Amino acid sequence: MLRRSDTPKHVLARRERSRQSKRRRREGRRCWSLEISDKAMEGLIAQAVYLGKLSDAEATDDHAVARVLAALLEAQGMKWAR
Fold this sequence. Notes:
There is one protein chain. This protein is an all-alpha fold. Helix content is about 60%, strand content about 0%. It has 2 domains: about 1-30; about 35-80, no CATH class. The protein has helices at about 10-25, 40-50, 60-80.
């Protein structure tokens, strides 16, 4: 049996992703993959900058944009959830 120190990094990374995924499912959350046109995404980013949700610098950071988009969709969805 391999010790943790002998386990390849890609296997450790896969296990960590699996743990995170299971934790999200227990919390009633999951990751969604969405296909959005570049033009629509530019509009959403412009809206987030205008509303002060993103700075100009953050607007070029994919992770920051994803966080803001997730928060926007979460808030919108919760308004309509029963």
